[in-house]
Amino acid sequence: MENIKASSLKSKEEVISDLKALLVLVNDGKEGYQSAAEATETPELKALFAKFSGERIVYAAELKEHIAVHGGTADNEEGGLLGGLHRTWINIKQALSSKEDKAILSAITDGERAAIAKYNEYIADYADHADHLKLLQEHREGISVALSEVERRIVQANQ
Q1: Is 112 inside a domain boundary?
Q2: What is the pTM of this model?
Q3: In a domain, 134, yes or no
Q4: Beta-carbon contacts of residue 24 (< 8 Å; ≥ 6 apart)
Q5: For 117-140, what is the mean pLDDT?
Q6: Domain-embedded: residue 129
Q7: Which of 23, 36, 94, 149 fits 49 for a cystine, CB–CB 3.0-4.6 Å?
């Protein structure tokens, strides 16, 4: 079941590795939003963070399907280890201890920007990711919408 184009510069294993890297990012986002929902005392933000966490659960399932199509497996439900770009969500832990919504929202922006950057990297590599390019674009758009909403809330908190 070979779905990678013959002109691809990456091996099937490298494409699987890319998808797994996105899966780690998505799971980091899920965990970050779950932690943020637990930390805030604002009901509206709890609901918003739960919504975004739920979106990341869907993204993870979709990425796992594509990993399987390429012959890989992905059993993890959690984010990555400390270190590397995908762990910028660690900043949220510091913000959570303050319980201040503005600090929590600001920390979330770092994780979302890192995720968008990684998605952009793989979308730009369209020859290697052609069979799931639309999915990657949809995920990036969803993360961008979440980031815009979080940034809007930061502006509101500053007023």
Answers
A1: yes
A2: 0.83
A3: yes
A4: 76, 79, 80, 86
A5: 92
A6: yes
A7: 36
